[in-house]
Amino acid sequence: MMFSVYALAFYAGGQLISQGLLDFAALMKVFLAVTMASQAVGSSMAWGPDQAKAEAATRSIFALLDTASPIDPLGDEKPPIARPAGKVEFSAVTFSYPSRSGVKVLENFNLTVNEGESVGIVGASGSGKSTLIALLQRWYDPDSGSITLGGVGIKTLPVAQLRSYLALVQQEPALFADSIAYNIAYGSQDLHFPPNSGAPLAKNEKEEGGEGKEDLVSTDVKIKIPPLAFPAIPQSLVAAVTTANAISFVNSLENGFHTHCGSRGMQLSGGQRQRVAIARAVLRNAPVLLLDEATAALDSESEKTVQEALDRLVAGGGQTKIIVAHRLSTIKNCHKIVVLEKGVIVEQGTHEELWKNSEGVYRRLAAAQEGETA
User: Fold this and answer.
1) Neighbours of 372 (CB within 10 A)
2) Which of 21, 106, 108, 300 could crosslink 343 through cysteines, CB 3.0-4.6 Å?
3) What are the chain's domains?
């Protein structure tokens, strides 16, 4: 169509030139003006849908920014209280997510976790396990009922203070693009480790006489890199890494605690990232430790190493531990195991007690994971 219009324009222009009504220069001016203007108009028409999408996206973004959250994480209008005991209690809690208000995730839920007790929470996907962790941290507030920490309603606490009493290890830990020491020390409110103190791994670098590092650029040219001045590692940080079963892999790295983790910790393996997150939670020394499927995303070998670290935490006294798990091996040593089904507790007891019930939900879940027939 485009070339047909060009041909028609030149044919008509040629006729006008032969009749003496137009010269060639005027023909080209008109032709270029019309064609270039048409192309510009066509392009702007093509951008029309994108402009409408951009306007819709902008409206939704500003609507989200203007929405007042019922939970203000930065508000401190409530007076702080002394460090509470680690007893956690859910009383008649009913909850539905705002995006699915018609679906009850928890309904009249009651659970008491005594101070120093380790409780494993298991169940099928969608049974409300991770929702308990979210409610305890006040990512959401329950529709009805109450949640207390050390006998104090969590709604009476400033959100920042409440979360300072909790230590969380998630399925996918969040690490900063900094050193291992910085990422672990971030969990402490008292220990301040300087940022940007990590040394990136470099395969073409080598130590030489303590005078710095040499990077071999060519057979004739060598560039001296001055040694990095690393800050000292506090003993408390070393103790947390040892508890998390991570001291061996940290010491095996060229720069040890000062090794840079990379963006989102991508220079470390999944098991290593998880152990760094566990060490961070140990160093936090909060009254309540929350483990939300901490081994679900790991391979069997990494899971074994991380599980050893979790077993040390469960065996340790004083700290209350709530462990959400798909893999039942993670919670076998807990003082109590709670089995959820559609937001309701259907079984609870120790691993041995629940295993004896051949018709129980826990036995069925365990048998399915072990490849047995319940």
Assistant:
1) 10
2) 106
3) 84-165+288-374 (3.40.50.300), 173-204+223-285 (3.40.50.300)
Q: Which residues contact 203 (CB under 8 A, 6 or more apart)?
A: none
* Ordered per-residue pLDDT tens for the chain, 374 residues: 888 888 888 898 889 889 988 888 988 998 889 888 888 888 888 887 888 899 999 999 999 888 888 887 777 666 667 778 888 999 999 999 988 888 889 988 999 999 888 899 988 888 888 899 999 999 999 999 999 998 888 988 888 888 889 988 888 888 888 888 888 888 887 777 777 666 665 443 333 333 333 343 334 444 444 445 667 888 888 888 888 888 888 888 888 888 888 888 888 888 888 888 888 888 888 889 898 887 766 666 666 777 777 777 776 667 888 988 877 777 888 889 999 888 888 888 888 888 888 888 888 887 777 654 43
Tokens of residue 209, six digits: 């006489």
Residue 300: C-alpha distances to residues 39, 222, 371 (Å):
60, 44, 16
Q: Are 156 and 162 in contact (CB under 8 A)?
A: no
For residues 159 and 145, what is the distance between their CA atoms, to the nearest angstrom? 18
Which residues is 118 bridged to in the sheet?
321
d(CA 228, CA 225): 9
Nearest C-alpha neighbor of 316 from the set 239, 251, 234, 238? 239
Q: What is the DSSP letter of 194?
A: P
Which burial class, exposed, middle or buried, applies to 188 when counting CB atoms under 10 A from its CB (0-12, 13-18, 19+)?
Answer: middle
Residues in the chain: 374
Are 88 and 320 a contacting pair, CB within 8 Å? yes
Cα–Cα distance measured from residue 231 to residue 347, given in angstroms and rounded to the nearest whole number = 50
Query: By three-state DSSP, how is residue 9 classified?
Result: helix
